[in-house]
Amino acid sequence: MNIVKTSGKMSDSVTKQYIEDYCINRIRRGNIDLESYQHVSQEPFNTVARRMREIGEEIESRNPDFFAGCCEQLHISETTAYAKFKDLADELFKDQENGQRGTCMSWGRIAAFITFSGRLALHCASNNMESLVPSVIGWTSRYIDTKLVVWMSDHQGWDGFLDFFDKNRVRETENEILTNAIGTALTYGAVGVGVVAGLAMLFRR
Q1: Per residue in 180-198, pLDDT tens?
Q2: Torsion of CA 51, 57, 62, 68, to 10 degrees
Q3: Domains in the chain and their CATH numbers?
Q4: What is the pTM of this model?
Q5: What are phi and psi of 4, to 5 degrees?
Q6: Do the beta carbons of residue 133 and residue 32 sit within 8 Å?
Q7: How far is residue 33's CA from residue 40's CA, in Å, rounded to a whole number?
Q8: Hey, how many other C-beta atoms are within 10 angstroms of the C-beta on 7?
């Protein structure tokens, strides 16, 4: 299959296509195939989608214990899922120095956010909450297109994501995202900051 390059432009439809591709591929890696998503290709549809899959898998593989239980720790249910999701997203992008939400952006945090969304989609599909999968995709897409879009557009959109996670820089970016990740999460969880804050602190770098 020929994988095309992205134009790098930000739009609601493009964002949703990326998030849908990532989440459904993550569910398939969990040996679940949703009939309602047969239209999503087994192969990534362009270079950004391919790299997004690779980065998400790398983040999870470096932190297997954390991702194996993160959704269980949040006690996700059909009635609480959105509130827990939004709390985590807001915490992840909160500037710790001034306490303002949605003010601290980086490609590393955005990759972490997408990785968590894929894991949440898998959790829903695995626990009789399949109806929440399109909601997770929609919540993630809308958050990006409302809260993160300005910063992303100022940093070359999806082309900026691809450039940042270029294979030639993978060791550098791994260090930025993953250094002491598990230890940090366990430390914050132990002092009672709370699961949502602990999840966010996992990728505070």
Answers
A1: 333 343 334 433 344 445 5
A2: 150
A3: 12-201 (1.10.437.10)
A4: 0.81
A5: -90, 160
A6: no
A7: 11
A8: 13
